[in-house]
Design brief:
This protein is α/β, with parallel strands linked by helices. It is 38% helix and 22% strand. The protein has two domains: 90 residues, Urease, subunit C, domain 1 (Roll); 285 residues, Alpha-Beta Barrel (TIM Barrel).
Length: 409
Amino acid sequence: MKDTVIMNVRIVTPGVVIDHGTLTARDGRIVSITRGAAAANVDAVDGRGRLLLPGFIDLHNDGIEQELEPRPRAVIPLSVALPAMESRLVSHGITTIFHSFSFMDGREGSLESEHLEPTIRELNRLRRTGVIRHLVHARYEMVEIQHFERLCRLIDDRQVGLVSLMDHTPGQGQYRNVEHLVSYYARKYNSTRAEVDALIEERSRKALNPAVGAILEKLAALARAAGLPIASHDDDTPEKVARMRDLGVSISEFPVDPAAALAAARGGLHVAVGAPNVLRGKSTTDNLSAIEAIASNAADILCSDYYTPAMLHAVFRLVRDRVLPIADAVRMASIHPARAAGLDTELGSLEVGKRADMILVNDMEVPVVVGAWVSGHRVYEKRDGTLDVMGDRWAEEAALPLPEAARAV
């Protein structure tokens, strides 16, 4: 395999930005990062002053379930859905993805229970043909103990890369204010108040099952023994953070309260916040402000959550708003999630010896990924003139009236 050389770029390393830089990858790994142009006889990509960043690592992306079932009972084959989703992921800079599968019943766990296990096994089979890295994030709803054995089998068979422990029981966590649950179901599912009240009653009843706690401890012990990172979800108090840490949790995912986020960070946990929260400037349920948490050193990881493009745009909003310098903001989408997932010896930063997972970004104001490489192989290209002279032709066509532009194709 010939070397991949990208020159005339601003290379964002974990600590500094190297202007007028050249990066060389060989056999899938970075072999040199230097300041200055490549040698005259080297076949290099001219980045034209763009930013070269490490590929983003997304620990929590909810898109796979929607991709598989875009309408109720309209199930799309995974062999069709996964490549379609993969194209969107890499176009927004994500080169390693943890697909979130919900082990819970009801509308929020969109896949039917019997489809969960075979779908996850099929994804792990198909990932060998993917152009980016695919892993599984198993979201276990604590009170849904009927899913326990299914998840145990998947962990035993090394089908899972991350386990998170969720509790959507109304009155705490994400739904401390029960009216937010009522509003969410009314807007998304057109549910009546009576239907939501029935859901609240059912979840509250399940939470009283004395088996919930014991099974949760068994699951956490199994995940720890398998060497899997464990995340808590929607922590709302420092006391809950402490309980989760006792179970072996190392990631506090989407804490809903500033005190909980700060307790998690001070307790040595990684704290993940939603990139949509950063992009929009607020939570959809008036919970923790991700920007405020980041500014107070109470969060260190960005996840795309429910909106894939948010990862890229959140990173650059943090820079534009002077919340973080660019190297720090990029770390929230790269080396920090890599470290939380135990992947940091291979992935997550542009450093000699690591896998050459890289993205080329063309602008700070409205960032666009114009090129992406995984292990040194170019897997995505957007023809904007950065990587191909066709960009000039396309720019000319875009300026023409529609009939003339159509004839020019």
